[in-house]
Design goal:
The protein is 51% helix and 17% strand. It is α/β, with parallel strands linked by helices and 327 residues long. The strands form two sheets. Strands 7-6-8-5-9-11 form a six-stranded mixed beta sheet, with helices on both faces.
């Protein structure tokens, strides 16, 4: 009798162990500053589903949209310190930390998505190396639509930007504001609508998607499609968290990330067209830049690129050389 009880108990214990092992689950949180309806967020949603499917639920990633977990400027640091396992952040916002992060914010270095992707390929090894030193693994990066000028008055030349209350989100946008004599104000995307409604800012450079998402046509009249640059969001994971995964799970995450990158770049192109249409529908005047404005901005761009190259040193020059060779 005792032997039977012992055997039954042992069998039950073994069964529980197997059951626990079968349903062992790793849970990650992911911080992002953008609303759930933004195309970057939708791409994240699909990435999370792909990881869940590929790992059969053994890795669960929970995205936290709209800066609900950390504000945009805090997300990168939160991943570095392990306060969150994953995060999405706007690369150019961290140019003061390292010039590498500001590369895709250089004015008029690229003219279209194809050139922007080639620039990314030249940048990627250096970006991965930098993030690795900071305890992060680059999973993927996706471009925003080209950045263009929004204003509440007509802009025919750079001189028309003088004195304008100008929203900045990176060292480059701040420098452009300085060069044209605008009045800079650092405003995060989540604060845009309020800043415009209260007159804190009167103009800015941002994407068509940001303009449509935040209904900038409610406060601004003009959109000048200057396509100044095509910046990127990066999605990273804590090196420690990624290293704790078994090899098959790591491979599943990287495969899902590669798909997210390809899907995101394609979607960005489509979002640009849809967003410009939404701006028009909202009553905003969508204009092409005048010849004078293009010439003025070209000179400003050349100044900013030269300044960046001087600061970025050998790595920066190597990326630009690699990009030009691949064009």
């Amino acid at each position: 009798m005792q032997r039977r009880i012992f055997c039954a108990t042992a069998a039950l214990a073994a069964s529980l162990c197997l059951s626990t092992g079968a349903y062992a689950q790793t849970k990650w949180d992911m911080a992002t500053a953008y609303p759930a309806f933004n195309f970057h967020s939708k791409n994240i949603e699909q990435f999370v589903q792909d990881v869940d499917t590929a790992t059969k639920g053994s890795l669960k990633i929970t995205p936290h949209y709209g800066a609900s977990l950390f504000k945009m400027p805090e997300i990168k640091r939160a991943v570095q310190t392990g306060n969150v396992q994953m995060g999405e952040f706007f690369l150019v916002s961290f140019q003061n930390e390292a010039q590498m992060f500001g590369l895709d914010g250089l004015p008029f270095l690229v003219k279209n998505y194809d050139e922007a992707f080639k620039l990314y390929q030249a940048q990627k090894p250096f970006l991965e190396k930098l993030l690795d030193k900071q305890g992060q693994v680059l999973l993927y990066a996706v471009a925003w639509p080209p950045q263009s000028i929004y204003s509440n008055k007509t802009i025919q030349s750079a001189a028309d930007l003088k004195g304008l209350k100008w929203r900045v989100y990176s060292p480059t946008t701040a420098r452009i504001g300085e060069l044209v004599g605008a009045q800079p104000a650092t405003i995060q995307e989540a604060e845009l609508s309020q800043a415009l409604a209260t007159g804190v800012i009167e103009g800015l450079i941002t994407s068509s998607a940001t303009g449509a998402d935040n209904k900038l046509f409610e406060n601004l009249k003009y959109y000048y499609n200057v396509q100044a640059w095509i910046p990127k969001n990066a999605v990273t994971v804590s090196k420690k968290a990624f290293g704790a995964l078994d090899k098959s799970t790591q491979e599943a995450v990287l495969k899902a990330a590669a798909a997210a990158e390809q899907r995101g770049w394609k979607e960005s192109r489509e979002v640009d067209a849809r967003s410009i249409a939404a701006l028009k529908q909202g009553g905003m005047q969508v204009e092409q830049p005048s010849a004078q404005l293009k010439a003025d901005l070209g000179k400003i761009g050349a100044t900013v690129i030269k300044e960046w190259t001087d600061k970025a040193g050998a790595d920066g020059q190597a990326i630009l050389d690699g990009y030009k060779a691949g064009k």
